[in-house]
Automatic annotation (TrEMBL):
Keywords: DNA-binding, Transcription, Transcription regulation. GO terms for molecular function: DNA-binding transcription factor activity; transcription cis-regulatory region binding. Belongs to the LysR transcriptional regulatory family. InterPro entries: LysR_HTH_N, LysR_subst-bd, WH-like_DNA-bd_sf, WH_DNA-bd_sf. SUPFAM superfamilies: Periplasmic binding protein-like II (SSF53850), Winged helix' DNA-binding domain (SSF46785). Residues 19-65 form the HTH lysR-type domain. Pfam families: HTH_1 (PF00126), LysR_substrate (PF03466). The lineage of its organism: Bacteria, Bacillati, Actinomycetota, Actinomycetes, Pseudonocardiales. This is DNA-binding transcriptional LysR family regulator.
Length: 306
């Protein structure tokens, strides 16, 4: 049996509810991403189909009539039911096709995950992946609150409320522009590096935390404030190449620039900057399904590189 003609167009009733809640045709139009004329036309068409007026219009705004209020109450129940059905269908579809939520630090997301995900697709072609690129601190927070199924970080510490597995190894590299005075040196020591204002990532970045921890382990007590904090590794590399200041970045991130000669690496004497890149998940709840498959892919490729 077909739906009654007067209630078949739920989209128009949804517009009516927006006008009632927001108090004007213009604001409702903005909320729906359409013109005010389109909203007015929908309301007029619905009023014509129903046979009575839904709104009273005045300089103070647009308000529901008594009859319009009743219609809005009925419409709200129908629209809520429609959204509930949409969410149910979306959940069934996600269960059928598979959906993997991944949170990863910038280094892992930019330079390692693409290869892992291509490999995963050959095993699970129907799995859709939602990737959130964050700093390492925020990735850990996403895992704790259930916003991601698996995370990848580059920070020096894993808290006790998380389990982890090393999936790759990396080394931090001090880079400068070819014209920088350090580019002609055979190296600098940790104290000289710590006393220099660098270009860095924001607080919470795994790369920044690892460097600061390594410097303190080398006996450095004071670390200079950054000359500039940037949330993008690409932006940092550009600023280094322009001669703004040196930076310490992942060797994965600067390999192309070093090969092209736009950046120059400077050795740091007696400072260990080798680090591990790590997969994390909630303690006692090992990854399963697509998350476990991704972890296997990442670990296998890590083993091959050793």
């Amino acid at each position: 049996m077909p739906l009654p003609a007067r209630v078949a167009d739920l989209a128009s009733y949804d517009v009516v509810l927006s006008v009632a809640e927001l108090g004007s045709m213009g604001r409702a139009a903005a909320a729906h991403g359409v013109s005010q004329a389109a909203v007015s036309a929908r309301v007029r068409a619905l009023e014509s189909a129903l046979g009575f007026t839904l709104f009273e219009r005045s300089p103070q705004g647009t308000r529901l009539t008594e009859a319009g209020g009743l219609v809005a109450d009925w419409a709200r129940s129908a629209i809520d039911a429609a959204w509930a059905m949409e969410e149910g269908v979306a959940a069934l579809r996600a269960e059928h096709t598979g959906r993997l939520r991944v949170a990863a630090s910038h280094t892992v997301a930019e330079y390692l995950l693409p290869r892992w995900l291509v490999s995963l697709r050959s095993e699970l072609p129907d799995t859709s992946v939602a990737l959130s690129t964050r700093n390492s601190t925020d990735v850990a927070d996403d895992i704790r609150r259930g916003a991601a199924d698996i995370g990848f970080v580059e920070g020096p510490e894993i808290r006790d409320d998380l389990d982890s597995q090393v999936v790759a190894r990396d080394r931090l590299t001090l880079v400068v522009s070819p014209g920088h005075p350090w580019a002609r040196r055979h190296g600098i020591d940790a104290a000289r590096l710590a006393g220099t204002a660098l270009l860095t990532r924001e607080a919470g970045s795994g790369t920044r935390e690892f460097l600061e921890r390594a410097l303190r382990s080398a006996g450095v007590e004071t670390i200079a404030h950054p000359v500039l904090e940037l949330a993008s590794t690409t932006a940092i590399k550009g600023a280094v190449a322009d001669g703004v200041a040196p930076a310490v970045l992942s060797s994965l991130a600067v390999a192309g620039e070093l090969a092209a000669g736009t950046l120059v690496t400077v050795p740091i004497r007696k400072l260990s900057l080798d680090r591990r890149l790590t997969a994390i998940w909630p303690r006692g709840r090992p990854p399963d399904g697509a998350a476990a498959a991704l972890l296997r892919r990442a670990s296998t490729r890590s083993e091959r590189r050793r």
